[in-house]
Amino acid sequence: MDAKEIIARRVALELNEGDIVNLGIGLPTMVPRFLPPDIHITLQSENGFLGMAPLEGEPLPGIVNAGGTPCGIQIGAAFFDSAMSFALIRGGHIDVTVLGGLQVDEAGNLANWMVPGKMVPGMGGAMDLVSGAKKVIVAMEHCTKDGEARLLRLCNLPLTARSRVSKVITELAVFKVSAAGFVLLETVSGVSIEMIRERTEAGFAISDDIKPMPLYS
Amino acid sequence: MKKIVEWAEIGPMFSDGVSIMFGGFMGVGTPLGIVSALIESKVRNLTLIGNDTAAPTTGIGPLIDSGQASKVIVSHIGTNPVTGKKMIAGELDVELVPQGTLIERIRAGGSGLGGFLTPTGVGTVAEEGKQKLTVQGREYLLEIPLRADVAIIKAKKADTAGNLVYERAARNFNPVIALAADLVIAEVDEIVDVGEIDPDHVMTPGALIDKIVVRMGG
Questions:
Q1: pLDDT value of position A217
Q2: What is the set of active-site residues of A?
Q3: Beta-carbon separation of A128 and B100 below 8 A
Q4: Does residue A100 surpass a pLDDT of 90?
Q5: Would you call A83 helix, strand, or coil by DSSP?
């Protein structure tokens, strides 16, 4: 199991029956594959519908996901315009959003939309999603490819939103973000707290009932 | 007023320097015939307002590629490398706006509102130059209305009065931009007689639509 799959399997356990969920591009789109069979969620797609599903058979005209790729819809799906879509997003009608991250800091700030001088794609709907979803889960690898920490005291990349992250799930650990900063809740078996400290620039408290990270399998 | 027009009439509706709102999300729901007509018309110095610049050969992309746009106001350019290249070369002014803020600025522009307050962008670069207000203990940015000279819309079906029905996720920005431009042109797959669309199923009322053109080959 690679890092991404560990993260996706753990994120799947965060979702509750009946949740309305918006998934960011990349790793978060793997999450529905690992949902327990008794958990049914409704996926929102920012381009204007509720009830997104995997593509089965030939693509139908006009049904694409927020990445522009053909997808399917569930029975009972609903289409709407972009103003309605973002009223849902900003208005607290999305229970959970799962997004990739570049950096998260102790104040729950998230940076995930640009790297000055390197990557300036535009924020799309990310700032609205992080501002408006009831729960913001960041699903990201613990360090960058070069081994640099991503859980920081203070983000140094441009922010997507301020103080909105609820939880961070990596291939090593699960943290919640409290008013006092990060709290380590779970670690993957075989990973020591020292190892997490080495790879985490931010300070963190350790939960009284810290436990091994469960994975849906 | 006769709303249904021929393709030959489309190009002359645009002139240099106009601002154009376009429907579409990654090209889905963009009126491709009107984009082609704009390219043939060779109008220049356009300001394009919509969700994204799609890809170089899809949606609004060809109008970026052709160099006819001098400014875009969009939420995302990452799927069209030509937009980024022209931006870096100083040939194209790119204003990035969070998607929910962009669509609501357009809605405000078409709804007689003086703006709105959004939490989106507080504490980020999106707040630069904007007034911040605290309401009931939460900080918001004051966002101002946005309008354009022309809106170009893609719908599945129109009746002769201009009542529109969109197809699935091709709706996106289209019904909202129909409110916010001085001239509103809809490209449709088919035109039916007035009365054939159930009034309950009309997604954009015909009163907002000035011109209708039927998709080429459609």
A1: 63
A2: 46
A3: yes
A4: yes
A5: helix
d(CA A46, CA A130): 13
SS3 of residue B174 by DSSP: helix
- The span from the CA of A89 to the CA of A22, in Å, is 9
| Confidence at residue B2, expressed as pLDDT on a 0 to 100 scale | 87
Indicate the residue of A64, A83, A127 with minimum beta-carbon distance to B124: A127
- Tell me the one-letter amino acid at B169: A
What's chain A's length in residues? 217
CA distances from A167 to A32, A98, A136, A139, A184 (A): 18, 10, 7, 9, 10
ipTM of the complex: 0.97
**For chain B, which ranges sit under pLDDT 70?**
1, 217-218
Query: Do B75 and A125 make contact, defined as CB atoms within 8 angstroms?
Result: yes
Nearest Cα to Cα of residue A39 among A14, A65, A75: A14
Segment (H or E) for A10? helix A3-12
- On whether any CB of chain A is under 8 Å from the CB of B29, the answer is yes
B chain contacts of residue A90, beta-carbon cutoff 8 Å: 100, 118-120
pLDDT digits (tens, 9 = 90+) for A19-56: 999 999 889 999 999 999 999 999 999 999 999 999 99
Task: Give percent above pLDDT 70 in chain B.
Answer: 99
Percent helix / strand / coil, chain A, rounded to 5? 20, 30, 50
Map out the domains of chain B with their CATH numbers.
7-98+146-214 (3.40.1080.10)
Q: What is the pLDDT of residues B97-155, one digit of tens each?
A: 999 999 999 999 999 999 999 999 999 999 999 999 999 999 999 999 999 999 999 99
- Collect all residues of chain A within an 8 Å Cβ-Cβ radius of residue B78: 119, 121-122, 124
Contact (CB, 8 A) for A31 and A23: yes
Residue B141, beta-bridge partner list:
B118, B132
Q: Which domains does chain A have, with CATH numbers?
A: 3-212 (3.40.1080.10)
Task: Characterize the bridge pairing of strands B211-214 and A135-139.
Answer: unpaired
Asked if A157 and A115 count as a contact pair (C-beta separation under 8 A), the reply is: yes
Query: Best mutation site among B171, B177, B208 for testing chain A: the one with the most A CBs within 10 Å?
Result: B171
Flag if B107 and A83 touch (Cβ within 8 Å): yes
